[in-house]
Design a protein that fits this description.
The protein is mainly alpha-helical and 351 residues long. The chain is built from 13 helices and 4 strands. A two-stranded antiparallel ribbon has the order 1-4.
Length: 351
């Protein structure tokens, strides 16, 4: 008796959505089992999580803030994943975007008027993320390097680079030794839209619409799809495959860098150690759960943002450790991968 995996020739949207939905349900079932084994009430935990994340003002604000970061990075990854260029470096590009934003806000242009900084700092973050993504793009095109390995390793370099700065020359003398920079000037902070939700939460909504149009209605979107399906056919059709790979990765990294800039300007208002709780990695789950659909990525990001806020609330209410958030994230990612296999393959049991 053995299992046989047969590639599906066609896969309907209904099937894809159903399997992804079941993947999330499976993740919750496994997480429920984990809670029972560790002696905790899973149903009380879920009630607390969802109530705080989506019904309480303070929790909803946190969900929207996480939505903003997750969805923006996720949209950047979707752009690269559509071409089957696996940009795993969203975390590092997020850090680089925040780092360049801090450089501009604190050291280069701290005295510029608010209206200029509102546009200049996000642009700086975009350029920072783009330049960081340009490294794996050139290595892939010129040297044939595996972009998964390169982008993943660059994440650690980016985080250590930020640590080097906030522990060293950028550390605020008034921070009592904590690894963080000084707070941004008021002119470099994003205005609030509602409570602690900054105006940058609107950016991914606009970006998703633009990305949907680019991917479905433009020549670039068509070439991304063809290169993703078959690079050889794209090359024989006269498409510049290498140029498109570089352009796509640079745009993908730039969008992740933009997310870092908005997070620095709207939430942290400074650069510090462990600046991100892993948004770049969670955004990979966003991209896969949304099936690379920019509009669906918005809903997935909001849901995941709420789940992670709910897990953080559990630390306070039920005294569960911080690692529970990462355990749930890992379970969810594992279930999503299983779902992706079921979407691409039909499993038969040969007796």
């Amino acid at each position: 008796m053995k299992l046989k995996f047969e590639p599906r020739i066609e896969s309907s949207k209904v099937l894809e959505v159903s399997i992804m939905f079941m993947s999330v349900i499976l993740a919750f079932l496994i997480f429920t089992l984990f809670m029972l084994i560790t002696g905790r009430d899973p149903f009380g935990a879920y009630k607390t999580m969802f109530f705080w994340a989506f019904a309480k003002k303070v929790g909803l604000e946190g969900s929207l803030i996480k939505f903003s970061a997750l969805s923006t990075i996720g949209l950047g990854l979707i752009l690269a994943f559509r071409m089957k260029v696996w940009n795993i470096g969203g975390e590092g590009q997020f850090y680089l975007g925040a780092m360049v934003t801090t450089l501009l806000a604190l050291f280069w242009f701290p005295h510029l008027p608010h209206i200029f900084l509102l546009f200049l700092l996000p642009l700086g973050g975009f350029i920072g993320g783009s330049l960081w993504a340009l490294i794996p793009a050139l290595m892939k095109v010129c040297l044939g390097a595996d972009e998964i390995v390169v982008t993943l390793m660059l994440n650690y370099i980016a985080m250590l680079w930020v640590d080097y700065l906030v522990y060293g020359s950028w550390r605020d003398p008034a921070s009592f030794g904590f690894p963080m920079t000084a707070i941004f000037p008021e002119s470099a902070k994003l205005p609030y839209l509602w409570g602690k939700v900054h105006i940058g939460v609107l950016v991914p909504i606009v970006l998703a619409i633009v990305l949907r149009v680019v991917l479905e209605r433009t020549k670039l979107g068509y070439e991304i799809k063809v290169i993703g399906d078959n690079p050889d056919v794209a090359f024989c059709s006269g498409m510049n495959v290498k140029r498109n790979i570089i352009l796509t990765l640079v745009l993908s990294g730039g969008i992740a860098g933009l997310s870092g800039a908005l997070y620095a300007m709207g939430v942290q208002h400074r650069l510090q150690h462990a600046f991100s709780p892993g948004y770049g990695y969670t955004a990979i789950i966003v991209a896969w759960l949304s099936r690379l659909n920019p509009i669906a990525a918005l809903f997935v990001s909001f849901f995941l943002g709420g789940i992670f806020v709910g897990c953080e609330i559990l630390q306070i209410v039920m005294k569960v450790p911080t690692s529970v958030v990462y355990i749930f994230q890992g379970i969810l990612f594992f279930c999503v991968l299983i779902g992706d296999v079921l979407i691409r393959y039909r499993i038969r049991l040969n007796l």
